[in-house]
Amino acid sequence: MRCERCNENEATLHIKHMQDGVISEYHLCQKCAQSLSNEGIIPDIGLDFKIGSLLGKILSPVEPDGIDQGTEADKKEKIACPNCGIDLETFRKVGKFGCAECYRAFERYLGAILRNIHGCEVHRGARPGIVSDEELKDDLQSLKTQLKMAVEREEYERAAELRDRIKMLEERGNACS
Amino acid sequence: MHALELASMPLEWVLGRGDESFIVLSSRIRLARNLAKYPFPWRCDRDSLCEVEDLVVEAVSKSLVLRSSSTLKLRQMDKIARMVLVENHLVSPNFIRGDDVGRAVIFDDRGIVSLMLNEEDHLRIQVFLGGLQLHEAWHVAKKVDGELECLDYAFNCERGYLSSCPTNTGTGLRASVMLHIPGIVTLGHVGHVARECNRVGLTVRGMYGEGTPAGGCLFQVSNQVTLGLSEEELVEKVNSVALGIVEREHFAREKLIKQRGIDFVDKIWRSFGIVSCARKLSVKEALELLSKVRMGSEMGILPPIPKSELNRMILNSQPGHVIALSKSREEEKINDIRYIATRRAEILRDKMSRFLNCKEN
Q: What ipTM was assigned to the predicted interfaces of this complex?
């Protein structure tokens, strides 16, 4: 059955609506039902309610942080996880990391991925009691080294982002200690 | 543990304790955790999955919170028991669909704490309480999490707890409440509420989570993001939105009774009549009728029915429970819709018979 409004798409929604004792029947496609619902002609039946997985779309346009993005060949070579072997393409398709090491392997892409999903990229919550201050210091040291390299390469956008991350981590360190 | 035992086990949330427990059926906290030394489950070989399972089971044996817990291996469970586990909210629908290797569920005798092993992440800690008790649930989850820390979690100071899917990275925390909002649904305001929830970073889903239908005006509201806010902030966000929805639901019910009067009351009594007398009920119809009965009882239109009975009726209407509670617990009955519908009506008639002769308000 075709949608009675646009007469193009398949009518996938069959709605019976009773108002003041009068029954009205509608045979509509998803799109037309949504617009009639928005116009208040048919009741809100929660058409915009299904929140599908948009993860693929969120992950696909991700580009590495910083200015020096390298060639396509560079990218493919650089970004496979040495521990589990997952490459960026697989990650984009599946939407999952293969292991904890992937978080380091895809470090340059991670900021953008996390910002797209969560709107930020730094953890502000609890940490395991057994995570030592040494580990926190190691993470800070690694970020400071990356910052130094970014400044040397004149990658100022990346440097600014690293500086923010260092600041947040230092604040967290103070808060936790 | 057999399907019948699972279907009859006492569940804390069913008792309906906790604030606002007429409208907020349950509160749930879930933490996603992984073991640093192993690839995430979907990249793990069979041996590693079994090793992870053994390590978690060993860590749990030293836990004080889970000292009287049961461990069920998925591969040892039949179809009906699996369905009942999902319906009891002890595992996710995805958990029973995948490969059985290394998959196990550990839970306490009241179904408050449950651990799901080797689903999307190595470990999912879940705390499930009745009513609006998100802060209490978080407190318990934190305790269990602390006891299991010896497993050497995959954690990074900057990114937090590392999960298989980046949507769970950071706190790995999902706080959710199950709401019964027939007033909002009847007034046609669900879409509006869902959009508002989205605007503040919350998601609205069906009764059993992602991708499940929202039957009987039951909806789950949970946080979308897990990174950038502390656990307490995430929990409070869901808590305050839930309170806002509860308020709106009360308002919607008042409006319905004022606007529709006897038509509204008649619908509620008719639902009460059908649940009490029907000989065949689909799960959809049963949930819709029970939704009206619940609302009617809460509003004083129907005789008072205890929350624990109302919750139990919702649970016992689910297909797994219907088969598990019937005399012939045969797997082939799973596809026998007529049989299940008849048995469901019988179960509900039996429950409702206690309230039939109660004095009308």
A: 0.81
pLDDT in tens, B125-156: 999 999 999 999 998 998 889 888 888 899 98
- Chain B positions touching A54 (Cβ under 8 A) are none
User: Which of A45, A59, A97 best probes binding to B when mutated, by most B CB atoms within 10 angstroms?
Assistant: A97
10-residue averages of pLDDT along chain A (177 residues): 79 69 74 69 52 46 50 58 86 87 86 86 82 66 84 84 77 55
Which chain A residues are Cβ-neighbours of B38 within 8 angstroms?
99
The minimal CB distance from B158 to the residues A59, A123, A126 is found for A123
Q: Which residues contact B92 (CB under 8 A, 6 or more apart)?
A: B86, B116, B119, B124, B208, B209
pTM recorded for the entire structure: 0.77
Structure tokens at B301: 């239109």
A114, B159 contact by CB (below 8 A) = yes
Strand duo B24-33 + A22-28: pairing: unpaired
pLDDT tens by residue, B217-269? 889 899 989 998 889 999 999 999 999 999 899 999 998 888 888 999 999 99
H or E stretch at B180: strand B173-180
State the helix-helix crossing angle for B283-298 and B337-356, rounded to 10 degrees. 20
B230 closest CB neighbour out of A37, A86, A124: A124
Buried b (16+ CB within 10 A) or exposed e, B198-227: eeebbbbbbbbbeeeebbbbbbbbbbbbbb
CB contact under 8 A, B157 and A124: no
B38 touches chain A (CB under 8 A): yes
Partner B, chain A 16-75, Cβ-Cβ below 8 Å? 37, 43-49, 51, 55, 59
